[in-house]
Amino acid sequence: MNEVRPGHTRNEFLRHMVLGFAAILMIYPLLWMILSAFKPDDQIFTNPTSLPTSFDLSNFYEGWVALRVSFTTFYQNSFLIAIFAVIGNLAACSLTAFAFARLEFPGRKIWFTLMLGTLMLPYHVTLVPQYVMFLKLGWVDSFLPLIIPKFLAVDAFFIFLMVQFFRGIPREIDEAA
Q1: Could you state, in order of their start, the residue ranges of all structural domains in the chain?
Q2: pLDDT digits 0-9 by tens, 111-128
Q3: Which of 18, 29, 104, 142 is the most exposed place for a label (fewest CB within 10 A)?
Q4: Average pLDDT of the segment spanning 32-50
Q5: CB contact at 8 A, 128 and 135
Q6: Residue 53 and residue 43 in contact, taking contact as beta carbons nearer than 8 Å
């Protein structure tokens, strides 16, 4: 049987009170933001703690189309870039990884080591040279720099992961096919 030590419940009560107060302090801005989203603009700062007198959904529409371009365009662009980047990565990196894992060609170990060496370069080191190259190609301010490199097997990390996967598959399965 657990015995309650003197002062234990008092300390536990105080701890819960402090944690509850901290939780209210953290949740209040989120709650205020959600309630303010449904208020008309003139009521947001007049009485910040009150509930909205009428629920106004026009704020959501105005927020969606507030810029020159609506958020729908942003979502469509992101979706297209993501789809093409995934297709390019899967196609190019899997073919490259299969070649490193299964095919014997001169300089294979050197090329694989160089490819792994690119993983050690900080990404920030390559930003300016990439920008200059994309500028000379006329690709700046377009989707091409986000899509075309994915079709050229430039993601060394994915190639490395796929090489390890292909090495784990027994060669008999390749020969049986």
Answers
A1: 8-64, 71-167
A2: 999 999 999 999 899 999
A3: 104
A4: 81
A5: no
A6: yes
